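Lab notebook, design round three. We kept the backbone fixed and only want residue identities now. Task for the bench partner: fill in a sequence for the structure below.
Input structure tokens:
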């Protein structure tokens, strides 16, 4: 059976449009109706977003920089990036996630969205689209893909990493669940992932495998980070062309 790109992708889409949407909308939101595990994942994820914003800002101001947020979820990264003046193209396979991102965006007064609006003629509102990673095209200064590779087995992840790198001119930022925590993670967060046998659908990746996939397309890792809370593990890498 085909995995992502076939059967698995449909399962993932269906999950993030239904029960997964309900669950992750809460985790990525601000309401109090989350359990202890969800609250912990919310904290871990917000640290990942914070680290990415820091990584990006360290290289210089974001004003006018084009960013592709691949698998954007509810816009947790896209919206703050747009606030910094980045020109954000965000997309997700789930129409429900994209609709939620647009809803969140509306809660932001336009005047708050971009610190550098005066210098930037035209709109810098992030553009949200329903699209899967496979059909992304175009060129962006920066491509970011956070916590999406968990839906890709390593053999599919290699190709996806190459594809994302081909869209990026300057840098690619990826976060993924590190294989190191394999058994522990499967046991603990199995319930968070799609499919009848939920736990088996979460794919962990060894940093060495990600690095090899990047090297294959002429990219190298130049920054690394890790976020660990009780129930959330995420490795963060920034890659650049060699
Ligand atoms: N990147 C967002 C963030 O960090 O806030 C969302 C992370 S969430 C765990 C994973 C997201 O990946 C979901 O919104 C899901 O719909 C999306 N996704 C999964 N497979 C995808 C694919 N093949 N193409 C595009 N999006 C995908």
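Proposed sequence:
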């Amino acid at each position: 059976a085909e995995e992502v790109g076939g059967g698995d992708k449909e399962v993932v889409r269906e999950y993030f449009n239904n029960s997964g949407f309900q669950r992750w909308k809460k985790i990525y939101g601000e309401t109090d109706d989350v359990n202890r595990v969800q609250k912990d994942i919310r904290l871990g994820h917000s640290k990942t977003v914070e680290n990415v914003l820091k990584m990006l800002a360290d290289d210089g101001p974001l004003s006018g920089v084009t960013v592709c947020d691949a698998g954007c979820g509810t816009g947790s990264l896209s919206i703050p990036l747009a606030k910094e003046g980045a020109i954000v193209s965000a997309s997700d396979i789930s129409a429900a996630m994209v609709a939620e991102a647009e809803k969140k965006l509306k809660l932001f007064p336009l005047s708050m969205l971009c610190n550098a609006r005066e210098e930037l003629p035209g709109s810098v509102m992030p553009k949200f689209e329903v699209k899967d990673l496979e059909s992304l095209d175009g060129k962006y200064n920066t491509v970011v893909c956070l916590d999406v590779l968990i839906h890709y087995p390593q053999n599919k992840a290699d190709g996806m990493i190459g594809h994302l790198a081909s869209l990026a001119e300057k840098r690619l930022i990826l976060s993924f669940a590190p294989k190191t925590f394999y058994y522990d993670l499967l046991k603990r967060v199995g319930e968070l992932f799609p499919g009848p046998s939920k736990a088996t659908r979460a794919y962990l990746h060894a940093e060495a495998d990600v690095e090899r996939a990047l090297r294959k397309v002429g990219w190298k890792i130049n920054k690394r980070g890790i976020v660990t809370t009780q129930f959330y593990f995420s490795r963060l890498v920034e890659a650049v062309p060699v």
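Keep this in mind before ordering anything: Residues 9, 12, 16, 24, 28, 71-73, 76-77, 92-94, 97, 132-133, 146-148, 151 surround S-adenosylmethionine (CB under 6 Å).
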